[in-house]
Automatic annotation (TrEMBL):
Its EC number(s): 2.4.-.-
Keyword Lyase: no
A matching Pfam family: Glyco_trans_1_4
Organism expressing this protein natively: Plebeiibacterium marinum
Domain of life: Bacteria
Name of the protein described by the UniProt record: Glycosyltransferase
Entry's Gene Ontology molecular function annotations: glycosyltransferase activity
Length: 419
């Protein structure tokens, strides 16, 4: 049985991290698995790419630009520019040798000019079983990656809040109709990383006739593991005598990541406990173009992009707690990584996060957009709990639910059932 994992990138973004980890996990149990991506890969990585030459990279960039330019006249404003993918640009990979040889095609994240709707149809027409791990809502919406409070995907989409001209026959409705016609004939087996996303997919008109499987992302618990905090802080140039709160994502400027609510929570914390002003510091990583760190009440260490897994593991181990103020999320890698390092997580009760955090046992949860509750959770995590017990609970939860071998075997059982 040959398995082929397909994702836009091998390295960039949460879906790429998850797909790459699954690829490694399957190899570790000696599965016959390959991975094909669009973006260039490092020479020392055994992942295949369709971009071998400079001209290939240029064509890939042009596809991305075509996709964005197509959506530009439709977008409500620039804040939603990357929140909606029309999937009009892409490349046909149906005749690629790895695709032709595969018994199972396993899709992950394929947007931003990699695979168009036409290209997906070309893959589906091969009549091979297609496993599709959903990292957001795009596989069952009329174009958006996260629908927020909109539930039009349950029926036919239309009246899309992301569009400048929104009506019953708008772009989202047309894309939804195209997807319906393609999906209806396809041998798709959808996998949700979280039960939350699976429940949304199951009620959608695009996937309600398909079986939805729930399998979380894997993580290498030998790599993401507890380390000596003081040694990590010395190496990263961070203070030894402060409570350090960690926050980060690929793009923390994205409103969905909730930086606004973290700032509000920290101001509440500062007003409520002014004596802690010189005891707390904040570490932020990720793209932060529109974030003014001077508005935070505590000292901020802005690390921007973290280079490599080893540095990321050390950074987690510098923190006393990790905060995730996201307004919508599937099964965040950052939560899993922090927990695997024995770091408690403070978060809103959104998406798949409550499946990862048991309140006051291995982390802290509060109602979405409740900045006061977030402030309380941060205080509890930093000052008012048994740190050893919470750290052990966080680590043990990951070991029991997300380890590489456990998840790889779940996928192997699924693959075998489809042949």
């Amino acid at each position: 049985m040959k398995i082929l994992i397909i994702n836009k990138s091998a390295h960039s973004g949460g879906a790429a991290v998850a797909a790459n980890r699954l690829y490694t996990s399957l190899k570790d149990i000696e599965a016959d698995v390959g991975m094909l991506v669009e973006e260039p890969v490092n020479k020392n990585v055994d992942i295949s790419t369709i971009c071998h030459k400079r001209i290939d990279k240029k064509k890939a960039f042009n596809r991305f630009i075509k996709e964005r330019l197509y959506f530009l006249p439709y977008e409500k404003n620039k804040t939603v520019r990357f929140s909606f993918s029309p999937a009009v640009a892409g490349i046909d990979i149906s005749q690629h040798p790895m695709v032709q040889e595969a018994d199972i095609i396993h899709l992950h994240w394929i947007n931003h000019g990699f695979l168009s709707l036409k290209n997906l149809d070309q893959l589906f027409r091969l009549k091979k079983p297609v496993v599709w791990t959903m990292h957001d809502m795009w596989p069952f919406t009329g174009g958006c990656h996260y629908a927020n409070t909109c539930n039009h995907y349950i029926d036919t989409c239309g009246h899309c809040p992301f569009l400048r001209w929104s009506n019953s026959c708008d772009l989202s409705s047309k894309i939804h109709e195209k997807k319906y016609n393609i999906w209806n004939q396809a041998n798709i087996h959808a996998v949700s990383c979280s039960k939350w996303l699976g429940s949304l997919a199951q009620e959608s008109s695009l996937l309600r006739r398909k079986k939805i499987y729930s399998i979380p992302n894997p993580i290498d618990t030998n790599v993401f593991a507890p380390m000596n905090m003081d040694e990590c802080r010395k190496e990263m140039g961070l203070p030894l005598n402060r409570k350090l709160l960690l926050f980060g994502a690929a793009n923390i400027s994205d409103p969905r990541k909730g930086a606004r609510y973290l700032m509000e929570a920290l101001h509440i914390l500062d007003i409520r406990y002014p004596e802690l002003s010189d005891k707390i510091e904040l570490i932020i990583f990720g793209k932060s173009k529109d974030i003014d760190f001077n508005k935070y009440p505590y000292k901020v260490h802005s690390l921007n992009y973290i280079d490599g897994t080893e540095q990321m593991v050390k950074l987690y181990n510098c923190a006393d707690a990790f905060v995730l103020p996201s307004l919508q999320d599937n099964l965040p890698n950052t939560v899993m990584e922090a927990q695997s390092c024995g770091i408690p997580v403070v978060s809103f009760r959104v998406g798949g996060v409550p499946e990862m955090i048991e309140n006051k046992k291995n982390g802290f949860l509060t109602t979405m957009k409740d900045s006061d509750g977030l402030a309380l959770g941060i205080y509890e995590a930093l000052f008012n709990t048994d740190p050893k017990a919470v750290k052990e609970n966080a680590r043990n939860f990951v070991l029991s639910n997300y380890s590489n071998k456990l998840i790889a075997n779940k996928y192997m059982n699924l693959y075998k059932s489809l042949l």
